[in-house]
Amino acid sequence: MSLFDQPLAQLSSALFTSDEKLRADVRAYIFEDINKILTPGIVVGVYLLGSMAGRQYGDSSDVDINLIFREGFDIEGSKKYVKSKNERMLPGTSHPINYHLQNYGIMTWEGAEYPVYDLVRDVWAVPPKLYKDIRDPREEFRNEITYAKLYAKSLNHKHDKLKMYEDLEKGRKDAYYFGWGTPRESQQNILYKYMEKLIKK
Q1: Which is more confident, 61 or 148?
Q2: How would you write the chain as a 3-class SS string?
Q3: Which residues of 159-182 are buried (b: 16+ CB within 10 A; e: fewer)?
Q4: Residues 67, 101: contact at Cβ < 8 Å?
Q5: Single pTM value for the model
Q6: What's the pLDDT tens digit per position in 75-88?
């Protein structure tokens, strides 16, 4: 989820109904889209994660979908093709869809700090936190954000910022891949998110 977006009382109406169930048309579109991109039957798990699954999202936040391949299928041959299909808008919204591939594994989500919606079972695997339980990110990450601002100011040229952005992207991916601490709260991820906003701005 976006570290800097303010928490909202409601989930995104672009994805969810008022009773916090994934909209049937969104679910149907995602399954149809997956079957167009990949051979039907090789995906056994479909999970919505990230900012759009929770209460910290923006007008253009990504719809992040994790796809779990059937046992015995290797994701490597499909990564490049699927990546080329990412960043297309969910119809009728300003939210791009991004598919992330995973080899087969039993998904328990034990100890997950973020919400996860299981599209196959059409239920929450990990429900989103209540609005009252989400801390203001400006307070929660005050020190990290201050450091990120100072760090960004020390880079004099746009080229330096872009190079650092690329290096940070690798660092945050390593944090997620190896599971160091809580990856989304790692310094690499906080710096990356701040640089991302800075560069887009």
Answers
A1: 61
A2: CCCCCCCCCCCCCCCECCCCCECHHHHHHHHHHHHHHCCCCCEEEEEEECHHHCCCCCCCCCEEEEEEECCCCCCHHHHHHHHHHCCEECCCCCCEEEEEEECCCCCCCCCCCCCEEECCCCEEEECCCCHHHCCCHHHHCHHHHHHHHHHHHCCCCHHHHHHHHHHHHHHHHHHHHHCCCCHHHCHHHHHHHHHHHHHHC
A3: eeeeebbeebeebbeebeeeeeee
A4: yes
A5: 0.73
A6: 888 989 999 999 99
The amino acid at residue 89 is M
* 176 token code pair: 């997620």
Written as six digits, the tokens of 189 are: 């991820």
